[in-house]
Write a structure and sequence with these properties.
Mean pLDDT: 93
Helix content: 25-40%
Strand content: 5-15%
Order of helices and strands: EEHEHEHEHHEHHEEHEH
CATH topology: Muramoyl-pentapeptide Carboxypeptidase, domain 2
Radius of gyration: 17 Å
Largest sheet: 5 strands, mixed
Oligomer: single chain
Distance between the termini: 32 Å
Structural class: alpha/beta
Strand order of the largest sheet: 3-5-6-8-7
CATH class: Alpha Beta
Low-confidence stretches: 205-210
Number of helices: 9
């Protein structure tokens, strides 16, 4: 059993404390709240950036999320999978959605809501994402961090990200190569920890911290 014992660490804006890291967070979140993560996570991102080969930069596409936004994403995936797999039952659709999007409420809420999770890619010196996905595979197949059917060059690109993030203490969700976290419930579960140090930060607290 995992206990969430939030250490009350503050949220900080990646744009201010991680000057070498790029952000591509949705405008409706960026304008209202900023690109927020826990203070320790920001320090880890800076170390990860320093570990990258010359000419490459980290790009954060998602960081802290409020509950209302997590709910939108969850419901959006239900519509997406229902449309793609019209013969699936509602139960089957929800089972598939739950592999890729966490809830917006309760103990099992998304790590993004804690400020401990980030979705990251790597870009080259021209700001272009280095290839890490295959159009020849389904969303689910291409999302897996390790997939033997991926082209060798994509596997190599992913390994750069894996090495960079794991060396500083981030943990990857194996069904999504881009999702990394530290301190949240899911990080604790993957690493067999009994205590998670970050719980969900609600809207009011997030506004105060920012």
């Amino acid at each position: 059993m995992i206990i969430i014992r939030d250490n009350k660490e503050s949220l900080v804006d990646i744009r201010k404390v991680c000057p070498k890291i790029l952000v591509d967070i949705p405008e409706k979140i960026l304008k209202r709240y900023g690109a927020l993560v826990r203070k320790t996570v920001a320090k880890m991102l800076n170390r990860a950036q320093r570990n990258l080969p010359r000419g490459l930069r980290l790009l954060v596409g998602e960081a802290w999320r409020p509950a209302w936004y997590q709910k939108q994403i969850y419901e959006g995936f239900i519509k997406r999978f229902s449309k793609k797999y019209p013969k699936w039952s509602e139960k089957r659709v929800l089972e598939e959605v739950n592999k890729y999007v966490a809830s917006w409420k309760g103990k099992y809420s998304s790590g993004h809501m804690s400020g401990g999770a980030v979705d990251v890619r790597i870009v080259d010196k021209n700001g272009r994402k280095i290839p890490m996905k295959s159009k020849k595979l389904t969303y689910q197949e291409s999302a897996k961090t390790y997939n033997r059917n991926l082209p060798l060059y994509i596997k190599r690109n992913r390994q750069i990200l894996i090495n960079t993030m794991t060396q500083v203490g981030f943990s990857n969700y194996p069904k999504e190569f881009w999702h990394w976290s530290y301190g949240d419930y899911w990080w604790a579960k993957r690493n067999k920890r009994k205590v998670a140090i970050y719980g969900a930060v609600d809207l009011k607290n997030a506004e105060n911290d920012y």
